[in-house]
Each structure stands twice: as structure tokens, then as C-alpha cells.
Amino acid sequence: GIQVEQSPPDLILQEGANSTLRCNFSDSVNNLQWFHQNPWGQLINLFYIPSGTKQNGRLSATTVATERYSLLYISSSQTTDSGVYFCAVDVLDTDKLIFGTGTRLQVFP
Amino acid sequence: SQTIHQWPATLVQPVGSPLSLECTVEGTSNPNLYWYRQAAGRGLQLLFYSVGIGQISSEVPQNLSASRPQDRQFILSSKKLLLSDSGFYLCAWKWGYEQFFGPGTRLTVL
Questions:
Q1: pLDDT for A39-48, tens place per residue?
Q2: Cβ neighbours of A35 in B, within 8 Å
Q3: How far is B49 from chain A (nearest CA, A)?
């Protein structure tokens, strides 16, 4: 089956720093979503981005489907950005999400 | 607007006891519904999904089952819990191309 790998697995930042999270997938996919799981476990939708670039405030994402990767950029990080970031891909014609391994981000003041 | 509810929020159950977790969606009709499980410190694994009443697809052979008795209700069950069933269970629904998740149920089996 399709493999979805994220890097780095862990990231520690000081408030105000910028970061880039990467998601690699091993096969063609329909769709790609980025999520933030907060410390209480809630999964929050960040981006639906099967291709191209999107921005929402301090966050932006780029997916290059032909090269099978997606990047999530966090600028001017805040302590509230802490948590685990997941990418998830929708495998062609199956309507199911396959989750990546996650990146655990800790932002310190 | 659409909302998704899960209960209970937390649950502690002894090994061998039955389980019933409920998920309901408001503000939409005939949604695709999903159950995922997250083991501690790991990613999410799809357990079941449903495209309509009574239609259930299982992704992983296990000690659990799912049912969809009503259009916007999805239930996860077990007849006898195992220690390995502990985890964080999340229900999700699909709108357009995106999946949206409920608040989850944290299950501890002792």
C-alpha cells in the first residue's frame, strides 16, 4: 500500500522562528490534507491541497503532486502552534485517508 | 453549519467488557462516515467507513465492529474488549473532498 512519511519527526522551536514540515508519499493520490492535532487531541483542518500553494495567515502549504511531496510552512511560530502535524492522502478511487507519521512541534516562549 | 459529536469523551473499561461508542453528525445528509484509531504517540489508522445506512467496510481485521443504524449515526462496538483496544477513537465525516473530525473518545482498557 501507499506509504506516507513525514519529516522531521520532532521539532523544537523558540517563539518567532520559522519552520518547514515535509510530507512524502509513495504513489499517486487524489487529495492531500494537512491537520494540526492540539494537545487535547482535536484534529483541526489546516489545508486541503492536492496541488499548488495556499496560504492562511502565518501558515502556507505547497504540494507538488508530480514529485509526490507536500510542504507546510509555519512562520513566526507561537506557543499555540505546538502539537502534532499530520498530512493525510486520499488514495485514488478509494475515498480513504492514509495518515502520515506526524511531526511533533514544540514551541517555547 | 455541520457539526460532529462523539461520546463519551473518556472511558475506562475492564478487559472482557463490551464497548459502544457513538458518533452523530448534524447539518448534513447521507455523509460518508469513518472511524479511526490512534495509539499513543502514533498516527491514525482507519478502522471502518460507511457510505450509507447499513453499509460498512472494514479496513483492519480486529476485535471491533461498526454499525450505521441511521443516516447520521455511526456506532463502534466490541463484545469483549482487549488490552490492545486502548487508544483514541475518532469519528470523521466527509464534505466535498475533505474529512472533518470529531473531538474523539479516549478509551483505556485495564
A1: 889 999 999 9
A2: 101
A3: 8
